[in-house]
Amino acid sequence: MSAQSQPDIGGMMAATVPMVRTLNLEFTETTSERAVVSLPDQDAFHNHVGGPHAGAMFTLGESASGAIVLTAFGDQLSRAVPLTVSSEITYKKLAKGRVTATAELGRSVAEIVAELDRGERPEFPVHITLTREDGSVSGEMSIVWTLRPQG
């Protein structure tokens, strides 16, 4: 799928996932290999030390992973449902201001689709880095997804 023919994943997620709208997440890049999503600095979602709440940061990272999954496997949605299997997050540094999540697919799309073609239920990781405005890593996430065959 070329960049010109890709759907507006950010717009689609904002229309169908209420938390994306609630947090005003901004999708700046969505390809089948990488997604970049930002959480604007908003007082309503701060924690007790003035940075983004841990739950808001988790939602940011999970949304970036969802964007890459939808971009990579959108053409498979008629036969499989993407679902999260597990997730892990590590908070490394206090985040202040805008936080950006960069998600990367941990296996090739072709390999995952080949498993689906064989009637298997593939599992695959998405790795997410959460960075502060100064570029420092404030957290890391790993989310394992599956494509559950329909029917």
Automatic annotation (TrEMBL):
One Pfam family linked to the record: DUF4442
Source organism, top-level taxon: Bacteria
InterPro entries assigned to the protein according to its UniProt record, in alphabetical order: DUF4442 (IPR027961), HotDog_dom_sf (IPR029069)
Gene3D superfamilies: Hotdog Thioesterase
Protein name, as recorded: YiiD C-terminal domain-containing protein
